[in-house]
């Protein structure tokens, strides 16, 4: 997964199908971990368990599939001129179709 993102980072961000596949695979990995611990209860596995570094008690996973920014975070784009946000996740659209 890391080598896929390294070599094809532009294609991953621009291809919705590939991005959806990465999100699906990431969710499968998390489900396997939950099944291995014999519990799929969501309250026992907040995202911090998966993405927190190992030094702090997490699993140290990298989230490759959640690179798109929800519309509600547009308000922060006025506070900075970094220009790093370029894509929106399906279901998280902007009324004016504006890219940050």
From TrEMBL:
<dbReference type="InterPro" id="IPR019581">
    <property type="entry name" value="Prp8_U5-snRNA-bd"/>
</dbReference>
<dbReference type="GO" id="GO:0000244">
    <property type="term" value="P:spliceosomal tri-snRNP complex assembly"/>
</dbReference>
<dbReference type="InterPro" id="IPR042516">
    <property type="entry name" value="Prp8_U5-snRNA-bd_sf"/>
</dbReference>
<dbReference type="GO" id="GO:0097157">
    <property type="term" value="F:pre-mRNA intronic binding"/>
</dbReference>
<feature type="domain" description="Pre-mRNA-processing-splicing factor 8 U5-snRNA-binding">
    <location>
        <begin position="1"/>
        <end position="100"/>
    </location>
</feature>
<dbReference type="GO" id="GO:0005682">
    <property type="term" value="C:U5 snRNP"/>
</dbReference>
<dbReference type="InterPro" id="IPR027652">
    <property type="entry name" value="PRP8"/>
</dbReference>
<dbReference type="GO" id="GO:0030623">
    <property type="term" value="F:U5 snRNA binding"/>
</dbReference>
<dbReference type="Pfam" id="PF10597">
    <property type="entry name" value="U5_2-snRNA_bdg"/>
</dbReference>
<dbReference type="GO" id="GO:0017070">
    <property type="term" value="F:U6 snRNA binding"/>
</dbReference>
<protein>
    <recommendedName>
        <fullName>Pre-mRNA-processing-splicing factor 8 U5-snRNA-binding domain-containing protein</fullName>
    </recommendedName>
</protein>
<dbReference type="GO" id="GO:0030619">
    <property type="term" value="F:U1 snRNA binding"/>
</dbReference>
<dbReference type="GO" id="GO:0030620">
    <property type="term" value="F:U2 snRNA binding"/>
</dbReference>
<dbReference type="GO" id="GO:0071013">
    <property type="term" value="C:catalytic step 2 spliceosome"/>
</dbReference>
